[in-house]
Design goal:
By secondary structure, the chain is an all-alpha fold. The chain has six helices and no strands.
Length: 196
């Protein structure tokens, strides 16, 4: 074979430490690592829970401001939104409960588990107490060594689908509660309603 006659010199590129870490992290992420998959599911459930919380707060304000004739409908919508938020939060908590049972297969998997633990501390009364700052410090050290995970917000259509699913679960639960209450009160059939 003849030697290549290509003598073009490529420009020199200098990468910062962060650039190299981000590139290494994205190249080395193993989607088969159960801890990373757990983190992605937890982040999704957390995001949906926050979206439903904001919805519930808006509906609460509307229910409080509603006139008597429309107050019942608004309270039903508010009840569904409250229960949907509970369902999404419960899903996130169930994923948190899996942490001890999931074995990370990489340093990034360990980072993923600690991301969940450190992320959950935001809901604790005082995240400045031991061991929370210490766990956050270990997480930061691991990120410096292994790199960070690219934590992306879930796609809007995925979030909307999850919200609708939790609202449907909540509407079913609220409907069953109303049916049981009506039976206890000796009334006939319960009111039917749709989730917003």
């Amino acid at each position: 074979m003849a030697d290549s006659d290509n003598s073009t010199t490529l420009p020199s590129v200098t990468y910062s430490r962060r650039d190299r870490q981000a590139a290494n992290a994205s190249e080395s992420i193993d989607d088969r690592d159960p801890a990373i998959l757990l983190l992605r599911g937890w982040l999704r459930a957390q995001h949906v829970s926050h979206v439903l919380c904001r919805l519930q707060q808006r509906l609460e304000r509307r229910a409080l401001d509603a006139a008597d004739t429309e107050a019942i409908d608004r309270k039903v919508g508010y009840s569904i939104a409250c229960q949907a938020e509970v369902e999404a939060t419960t899903a996130a908590l169930k994923l948190q409960d899996k942490i001890p049972h999931v074995q990370a297969r990489s340093l990034l998997g360990v980072v993923a588990k600690l991301e969940i633990i450190a992320g959950a501390d935001r809901d604790i009364d005082d995240p400045t107490d031991f061991p929370w700052p210490h766990i956050a410090s270990v997480l930061n050290d691991l990120k410096e060594i292994a790199g960070s995970l690219p934590l992306e917000r879930p796609d809007r259509t995925v979030v909307q689908a999850d919200c609708r699913r939790y609202q449907a679960m909540a509407a079913d639960m609220i409907g069953l509660q109303r049916q049981a209450a009506n039976r206890r009160l000796g009334r006939g059939s319960a009111l039917c309603f749709d989730a917003e």
